[in-house]
Amino acid sequence: MTTDLAQMINLTLAYNSNNLLVKNKFYANHNFRFFTSSDVKDDGKLYQFIDSPTGWLLSLKMNECQRLYIGYINRNNLADNYKTSAFVNGGDKWVTAAKYEDHIEYWASEWKVNDYNETTTTWNVSFHILKIDSGAKPVITLPNTVEKQKEELRTILTKISQFADEHQYTKYFVKDFQKSLKYLSDANVKDSYLSDLVPDNSLAVENQKLLIAAGNAIVFGGNGSWNDVGLEKNITYKKLTESLYKTINDSVLIAVNN
């Protein structure tokens, strides 16, 4: 899971569970450890907060935002998206949707590299409101229930795990798919790199199982990733990979928003 998506999920769940004011809670989370300051850009106004991303959430609360959702915009065709999803500006574009009584704002994050020195970390992260074209509104709701989506994820994970076990250069990924299958049934995620993704008491157990299983199944990237196994001309590989990518994204969205 990319760090910008992990941050969106963590912030969204923290806001919706009213878990905003724990001192340094975000910088204790590994998804926030690499940036030192954040800005919020809102219609030309610039808000800066140094201590914690909590400042952005509190500004939403002061403006009477009812709740947050995550959503995605399909930027390219599905094949291109799974190939580029691990890179900057690749894959579906993830956003945070802030729902008010009479409108929804869509927010995105922008990452810039800091000038390195011993007192700063790597990134400056800005949050800004997106201007959304009428034909490109983010997807924030899907018809499936959490249980139905768990079954869809279980089905594609089983199929792609079987496929991976049958080919020399994909056997390495079987353990990732099998671990995701385990997470669908087991809420114990201490051995997952996503173990601190969900704030305490912010998500139902079954939603958390779906979220962690989906996040753990993200195997797309560059050299050495699922995209780099040399099977681009294999029709089964292509269909399974496209299905896995879409099912993961839908699972993440349903787990957080439902």
Summarize this structure briefly.
The protein is α+β, with helices and mostly antiparallel strands and 258 residues long.
Describe this structure in words.
The chain is about 40% helix and about 15% strand. The chain has about 260 residues and is of the alpha+beta class. It has 2 domains: about 5-135, Nuclear Transport Factor 2, Chain: A; about 145-255, no CATH class. It has a 6-stranded mixed sheet with strand order 2-1-6-5-4-3. Helix 4 runs antiparallel to helix 5 (about 175-185), helix 4 packs antiparallel against helix 7 (about 235-255) and helix 6 (about 205-215) packs antiparallel against helix 7. About 35% of the residues are buried.
Distance linking N and C termini: 20 Å
Q: What is the 3D shape?
A: globular
Q: What is the total tally of β strands?
A: 6
The whole-number mean of residue pLDDT values reads: 82
Q: Could you name the CATH topology of the largest domain? A: Nuclear Transport Factor 2, Chain: A
Class by SSE composition: alpha+beta
* Number of H/I helices: 7
Topology summary:
Elements: H1 3-16, E1 35-42, E2 45-49, H2 54-62, E3 67-73, H3 78-84, E4 93-99, E5 104-113, E6 123-129, H4 146-165, H5 174-185, H6 205-216, H7 235-257
Parallel strand pairs: 1-6
Antiparallel strand pairs: 1-2, 3-4, 4-5, 5-6
